[in-house]
Amino acid sequence: MKRIALLGLAVMTVAMSYAQGISGTWKGMLNAGNQKLEIVFHFDPSKDGGGAATMDVPAQSAMGIPVRLNLLSADSVSLDVLALLMEYTGKLNNGVITGTFRQFGVAFPLELKAGDAGKPNRPQEPESPLGYKTEEVTFTNQKAHVSLAGTLTYPVNYTPDKKVPVVIMVTGSGAQNRDEEVFAHKPFRVIADYLAKQGIASLRYDDRGVGQSTGNQAGCTSADFAEDAACGLSWLKSSGKFNQVGILGHSEGGLIAFMLGAEGKADFLVSMAGPGIKGDSLLVEQQNALFKLKEIPSNVSVSTLRKSMATQPGNVWLEYFMDYDPRPDLERITIPVMAVNGSNDMQVLSDSNISAIRNCLSGKNSKNLIKVYPGLNHLFQHCEPASSMDYYKIEETCSPEVLRDIAAWINSL
Questions:
Q1: Distance between the two ends of the chain, CA-based, in angstroms?
Q2: Helix (H) or strand (E) holding 337
Q3: Which residues touch 40 (CB under 8 Å, ≥6 apart)?
Q4: pLDDT at 2 > cutoff 50
Q5: Which of 54, 61, 127, 206 has the fewest C-beta atoms under 10 angstroms from its C-beta?
Q6: Residue pair 340/379 in contact by the 8 Å Cβ criterion
Q7: Residue 312 neighbours by CB distance under 10 Å
């Protein structure tokens, strides 16, 4: 589980007038008590006859949030995002917009300066030349009338007569592209690059309705996304290029790996922070852990969680997730499984989830590897417990020891 997507509104502009004083990208650091967030606005005075704007909060992986412009003039701006109960007003003077950011009735000063948001340092992200071959491919879920587009990465020195293992990568919750891009990180791209250098092929694909894939996720559940992944597995097997076809899933993708493993759809599974306990229990653990991290007393129970959810608008995906218990599927799996967690994961807590997975798989396959990595968070980044969810600030995308272990384990099968 990674995040809950921000709601957006259609852009509505009622600007009084504009000039070129406030145009392009403006950014500033919001100091909201114990939290600092970079806020980025993109202003286009010429658009829609009166101006338009969007907002980014990179640290929360929230980009292109539509805002409503109430005023955009040569030296003043006023805007709001009703869905976030947020507004900003400011005045330009000597190249700086001095203003006030308000949300939920609380006001904070926010100064903006012109300039593009700096690109965060991501040292593990591969750069050209890659040293291996990639191919743009598509496969189809005919039942759902969905076409999934992705990148097939071949290993270094691959030749058509050389049979190699391959993994299909399945993303975590939310609409994700083929790189599982989140918080300015591209975990699946980094993993695919490392595997290619270790003789392992991979297929990563855009989720339904994302990138070049068709369809949409409205009304879909983990079971629907598992069908997509199963179609990808079938496509890889039918290609005849690979000797073993496995699944590498992160978070919800790890849960989907368990689903398909129970059905005998794959030759092996790699689950990175895949849930091993029932969804409602996992969400309760998650909420209590997050409150504890913020030093807030909490004792959320499954009962209180379900009562709270009953008052919220219906969410098919969430209802399915809360009711799904992976343990019956785990008990049916006999193929090799690598299941890993980080000790500082605040979204899929390692103690309960890894214990459940270990108990369900006990004695099933001698090649199973079940492991908790000290000091790693939900994205398998090194961190201190207090900064376990500062995904954007952490430069590391995926810890080298996890990458090494995944490749070594697959190659040992």
A1: 29
A2: strand 337-342
A3: 25, 26, 27, 55, 56, 57, 58, 117
A4: no
A5: 127
A6: no
A7: 8
- φ and ψ of 285, to 5 deg: -60, -40
Confidence at 125, pLDDT banded by 50, 70, 90: very high
What span, in angstroms and rounded, lies between the C-alpha atoms of 51 and 61?
25
pLDDT digits (tens, 9 = 90+) for 306-338: 988 888 888 999 999 999 999 999 999 999 999
Three-state DSSP at 211 gives: coil
Q: What is the Cα–Cα distance from 131 to 242, expressed in whole angstroms?
A: 20
| Region for 157 from its dihedrals, namely left if φ exceeds 0, alpha if ψ lies in -120 to 50, beta otherwise | left
Classify burial at 388, counting beta carbons within 10 Å of its beta carbon; exposed 0-12, middle 13-18, buried 19 or more.
buried
> What distance in Å separates the CA atoms of residue 263 and residue 260, rounded to the nearest whole number?
5
- Reported as a single tens digit per residue, the pLDDT across 15-68 is 333 334 788 999 999 987 667 889 999 999 887 667 889 999 988 878 889 999
Q: Where are the beta strands (DSSP E) in 115-236?
A: 134-141, 146-153, 164-170, 201-205
> 50-53: long-range contacts at Cβ-Cβ below 8 A with a sequence spacing of 24 or more?
50/13, 50/14, 50/15, 50/18, 51/13, 51/15, 51/18, 52/11, 52/13, 53/11, 53/79
Report residue 26 as tokens: 């403006």
**129 upstream amide cis, omega within 30 of 0:** yes
Global confidence as pTM: 0.85
Cα separation of 344 and 364, whole Å? 28
Which tokens hold the place of 283?
Answer: 């969400």
Model confidence pLDDT, tens digit, residues 355-377: 999 999 999 999 999 999 999 99
- According to the model, what pLDDT value does residue 34 have? 66
Q: What's the rounded Cα separation, in Å, for the pair 106 and 296?
A: 20
The rounded distance, in Å, linking the Cα atoms of 66 and 52 is 9
pLDDT tens digits for range 150-208: 999 999 999 988 889 999 999 999 999 999 999 999 999 999 999 999 999 999 999 99
Pairing of strands 76-81, 68-72: antiparallel
